[in-house]
Amino acid sequence: MPSRRYTILIADRTSGVVRRVTISARPAVVVACALVTLPVLVGIGAAWKAKSEVSSLYASNQSLEAENSNYRGATKALSDQIEVLESVVSDLGAGAALDPSLARAMEKLPAFVKNRAMGGSATSMPSAQPTAYAKTLSALATPEDTFGLLRSVLEGLQNRLHDVRAMVERRNALAAATPAIWPAHGWLTSRMGSRQDPMTGGEDFHAGLDIAGEKGQPIYATAAGRVSQAGYQGAYGNLVVLDHGFGLETKYGHLSSFNVKPGQDVKRGDIIGRLGATGRATGYHLHYEVRANGRLLNPLQLLTQQKPRDQ
Question: Is the model's pTM score more than 0.85?
């Protein structure tokens, strides 16, 4: 069907001029529809774009939340490892110091005793390599790589510090087991070595020290250990034998009485008996021996200036 045509009259009242504009209905409708539809389409497009951007931001936010959760977990793990390291370092600082005289006494112990205590060669601390660590850190591409490396470094340090702490504990155990104090107050009447037998006058080898004193004076354990014997034994008379571990053993002879019994644990300075003259003795004194794996050691090499505690 032919398109309808419309004439629009435009009159100027002042001049009386009349102008006619003729338009077709179909193009007019198309233009009107375009004018109405275009803003709607623009609005729909803007809304679609905004929705797409919101969806993208939501996905990014979820990804960031997941990454933050991973970082929080990694940070918590690192924080826990650092706390463990601080605890280990604190323990090492508290247990590492030794009395210098006791350390010197330990140095004079036979090598096989020290090796048995320390379990072989000492564990060395890891050497610091900050430059190498810095270069490695700078080469890492992501924070996950950085956290992974830091965790590995901290775990390595933690394992090494645990080894060092175990070594310090073994060293302290050896220090406690080293016979290092005088077993009695008194005066030294006989040293270890060749001497004239006080009873027969012949040649004799003395296996330890004789310390003279008054009957009933306290006799002290010279190191921590366990009582392996407390009873009468021939020439020793009343004898206490302490097993200190690591192959170390001490003997206390001629006692007048016992303050301990077999199987009892004692500490350095504990009273284990009283001075006497039982067995083969010419007067009130203590016979004191130190052995390592059954081999005699000279007690004077181990004695420090540390005095036994008073009764």
Answer: no
